[in-house]
Amino acid sequence: MKTFLTIFRKEFTDTVRDRRTLFIMVIFPLLLFPLLFGGITKLQVSQMKKVEEKILRVALINAAGAPGFEAMVSASRGMRITPPIVADSAQPFLQRDSLDAVIIVAADFRDKVESLNAGTMTVMFKSGDDYDIVKRRLHDLLRNYEKQLITSRFAKLKLDQTIVSAVHVEERDVASIKERVGKVLGGFIPYLFVIFCFMGSMYPAIDLAAGEKERGTIETLLTAPVSRFQILLGKFAVVVLAGILSAVISMIGLYTAVRQVKEMPQEMLTAVMGILDVQSILLTLSLLLPLTVFFAGFLLSLSMFAKSYKEAQSIISPLTIVVILPVAIGMVPGIGLTSTTALIPVLNVSLATKEIIAGTIEPGLLALVYISLIVLAALSLWMCTQWFNREETIFRGT
């Protein structure tokens, strides 16, 4: 045990001296979430406010066929009626952003309405990245005009409008706010945690194996009066610690970011803070631990095979995409934690974390995830040990 701790301290000291590792492991996850949540939320709120307050340039075609409609648009806040255009030129005007919307009243609109039928209005607009706010504002305008016509129609017929409502629907969502928010954020949060675990493990693994080979210090270390397994275990522990620390720091960054977003409604803030409770965090970390052990064994094996730091980086870096893929699959709606998905590496962590955050995790499936991850971690460590004991691997390229 004393020998292992000595090797661990030596490898850990070498790791924290590397600025790239320190940045990826500590600085990057700590800064990412405040910048991501704070910056994007403020930008999103600002853009939505800008679109809401924008004066929409609306062209009306055959407005005389809809009594009172033109006056209603003129009186609407945030809308301006432009000079009349012909219907054939509507699309070019919208494509050039000269107009925000064109509303075409059908030629038989008045006759249809007066005969107690539905008249047709065509709304033309150019969709974009405005969160459909322009579309919603136009639809709100038309709904209000429809209400006026219906009120007038019922008044002429001397009927109560409530007679058309045969069914009154009351919706009751039994899912708690934590569950609803958790299902949304639950797909995104493990995506980041898994990536940070992988990236936090990647750079120490490259430096402690390929980096030592390149520096020529691996031979000196192997001449020490300790077994190769103890040397490997010391390196292995540092890589695992780096991955877990990176994930923990990213959680701290997420907590800090959520507290700083003032635009978030209090109800949602309470729900998000409930998601980040001690039990959820500890369960998530307990899942990330065996996953990081698997990452460490796999990355150390590849790093030992490489002749230099650069070669190891070129081999390992593309694997980030391989790790991202199963996590991204876990974000697809309808993909849930089952007895099958609980056995798929990385995907099981993503789905289990989503369920933990939402507070709907089933103990049996969680146990299955733990078993599969522990078996995978043990296999990874065993394979790494076998790889490290081969002379042709250690001294490849020397």
Summarize, please.
The chain has 2 domains: 2-36 and 177-394, no CATH class; 55-162, 3-Layer(aba) Sandwich (abc type-2 transporter like fold). The chain is 68% helix and 5% strand.
Describe the structure.
- Helix content is 68%, strand content 5%.
- With 398 residues, it is mostly helical.
- The chain has two domains: 2-36 and 177-394, no CATH class; 55-162, abc type-2 transporter like domain (abc type-2 transporter like fold), CATH 3.40.1710.10.
- The protein has a four-stranded mixed β-sheet.
- Strand 1, helix 3 and strand 2 (79-81) form a beta-alpha-beta unit.
- The longest helix has 39 residues, at 177-215.
Properties at a glance:
single chain; about 400 residues; abc type-2 transporter like fold; 2 domains; four-stranded mixed sheet
Radius of gyration: 31 Å
Number of domains: 2
| Topology as a string of helices (H) and strands (E) | HHEHEHEHEHHHHHHHHHHH
Poorly predicted sequence stretches spanning 5 or more consecutive residues: none
Let me know the number of strands. Answer: 4
Strand order of the largest sheet: 2-1-3-4
Report helical residue fraction.
55-70%
